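Hi there, hope your week has been kind to you so far. Do you reckon you could talk me through the fold, stretch by stretch? Thanks so much in advance, here it is.
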Amino acid sequence: AIEGRSFSKSLRFALMAQHFGLGADGSGEQSLREAAANPATPSARDDIRRVARRNTLIFEDVFCVLPTDRVRSWKDLEAWRQSGPRTGFSINAKPADERLADLAGRAVLYPIEFMASEDLRLPSSRGRK
């Protein structure tokens, strides 16, 4: 049983290192080390979401990615496309390579609000309930 716990702990820390920027040796933000040690706590969930949100904003700022929660309508989409890819500088005028250096792991948030203000059903099904 002890070997199983040791394996589980090492796997959890390896996954946290890969996806959330926690050092494989357990180094990194104290809150993320605690999240890796006990991922079932509400504070662990909040810390993981914070890192994923920060990564999401960095990718959106640097690469102008779609889909994004910043685009909720056709009007927003047009404005987002007009802003164009940010090759070199991000929205906040920090060079892109410096922004990308701020990434912690690879985790990002899934954009659940993309085009949320629009009725995207086919025209033939809009009148049906």
Q: What stands out?
A: The two ends are 54 Å apart (CA to CA). Helices lie at 2-20, 30-37, 42-63, 74-83, 96-101. Residues 34 and 113 are 30 Å apart (CA to CA). DSSP finds five helices and no strands in the chain.
